[in-house]
Design goal:
- The complex is a heterodimer of chains A (108) and B (121).
- Chain A is an all-beta fold and 108 residues long.
- Helices cover 0% and strands 45% of the residues of chain A.
- By secondary structure, chain B is mostly beta strands.
- Helix content of chain B is 0%, strand content 50%.
- Chain B contains no helices and 11 strands.
- The chains are: A mainly beta (108), B mainly beta (121).
- At the A-B interface, β4, β8 and β9 of A face β5 and β10 of B.
């Protein structure tokens, strides 16, 4: 099975734009899913596929992909966006799924 | 209301067994791939297993293959995870999750609140 690599921590000033990245061989073939998790809560899907947002997710969240890297961009970060963010995808064998290690986003 | 509710967690000794359940409501359960995902205390998300809509296809993480069995009862709208030969490293909150993708890609659009499994003597 393959792995997905994320930066452990990222910070952004309130109202600014931040990009959270996820790297892995499987991302050359599959789009990532992105999840937001706040302390004590279940994760929430924020981006999936090429750049789709589930109902109720603000449009300041967007996704992109190039080569082996998927990115989640928050344009105009809000205080409530402070959370852990995880990417996932199928693995290269398509028999497993894999999560990245997570990125802790701090909004300053 | 569209929801998933896990149950069955608890304290179990190493080598023991536990069966988790996930009751689904508010949607057509049989149409969806379903997954189990776990999270050890203070750690990240880890995919455990998935099953397709009619139960004919299953996959497992290497760390649980041969010890865990995923199944479903579509008549009861319930997902299960039978966990045998439990180890300390299986200690985690276990979430069930619905996959919005028809091929089981892992786009989990609905999660339960999780059930805690603690493996300890």
């Amino acid at each position: 099975s393959s792995e997905l690599t994320q930066d452990p921590a990222v910070s952004v000033a309130l109202g600014q734009t931040v990009r959270i990245t996820c790297q892995g061989d499987s991302l050359r073939n599959y789009y990532a899913g992105w999840f937001q998790q706040k302390p004590g809560q279940a994760p929430v899907l924020v981006i999936y596929g090429k750049n789709d947002r589930p109902s109720g997710i603000p449009d300041r969240f967007s996704g992109s992909s190039s080569g082996n890297t998927a990115s989640l961009t928050i344009t105009g970060a809000q205080a409530e966006d402070e959370a852990d963010y995880y990417c996932n995808s199928r693995d290269t064998s398509d028999t497993h799924l894999v999560f990245g290690g997570g990125t802790k986003l701090t909004v300053l | 209301e569209v929801q998933l509710v896990e149950s069955g967690g608890g304290l179990v000794q190493p080598g023991g067994s536990l069966r988790l359940s996930c009751a689904a409501s508010g949607f057509t359960f049989r149409r969806y791939w379903m997954h189990w995902v776990r999270q050890a205390p203070g750690k990240g998300l880890v995919w455990v297993s998935r099953i397709n809509g009619d139960g004919s296809s299953t996959n497992y993480a290497d760390s649980v293959r041969g010890r865990f069995t995923i199944s479903r009862d579509n008549a009861k709208n319930t997902l299960y995870l039978q966990m045998n030969s439990l180890r300390a490293e299986d200690t985690a909150v276990y979430y069930c999750a619905r996959d919005l993708d028809s091929s089981g890609s892992g786009y989990f659009d609905l999660w339960g609140r999780g059930t805690l499994v603690t493996v300890s003597s």
